[in-house]
Amino acid sequence: MDKNNFRRFFGATLTILGIIVVLFACVAFLSDAKPVLGMSITKWESLAPFVVGLVFLGSGVSLINNS
Q1: What is the pTM of this model?
Q2: Distances (CA, A) of 38 to 20, 35, 41
Q3: In this predicted model, what pLDDT tens digit does every residue of 32-67 receive, in sequence order?
Q4: Residue 19 DSSP label
Q5: CA atoms within a 13 Å half-sphere pointing along the CA-CB vector of 2
Q6: What's the Cα-to-Cα distance from 54 to each of 10, 25, 48, 66, rounded to whole Å?
Q7: What is the rounded CA–CA span in Å between residue 67 and residue 26?
Q8: CB of 15 within 8 A of CB of 61?
Q9: CB 11, CB 60: distance < 8 Å
Q10: Is 56 exposed, middle or buried (CB count within 10 Å of its CB: 0-12, 13-18, 19+)?
Q11: With contact defined as beta carbons under 8 Å apart, do 65 and 14 qualify?
């Protein structure tokens, strides 16, 4: 596999994963402490997956742009 193709594949994977985690954090934030996917997450606890999702999303887009 070529180096640029690997970067694009890994960047796309990180971007998709970041979008999924950010959407999960948004659903958890709006759920009013009801269980989401079997996990009871408060509004402040939903901040951690949101930040992690943004990091994944940003790094994935950066990898795609630089390859």
Answers
A1: 0.86
A2: 17, 5, 9
A3: 778 888 888 888 888 999 999 999 999 999 999 987
A4: H
A5: 4
A6: 16, 10, 10, 18
A7: 30
A8: yes
A9: yes
A10: buried
A11: no
Cα–Cα distance measured from residue 25 to residue 14, given in angstroms and rounded to the nearest whole number: 16
Please give the structure tokens belonging to residue 56: 């994944």
- Nearest Cα to Cα of residue 55 among 19, 3, 9: 19
Tokens of 7: 């970067």
Secondary structure (H, E, C), 10-65: HHHHHHHHHHHHHHHHHHHHHCCCCEECCEECCCCCCHHHHHHHHHHHHHHHHHHH
Report the domain count for the chain: 1
List the domain range (segments joined by +) for residue 26: 3-66
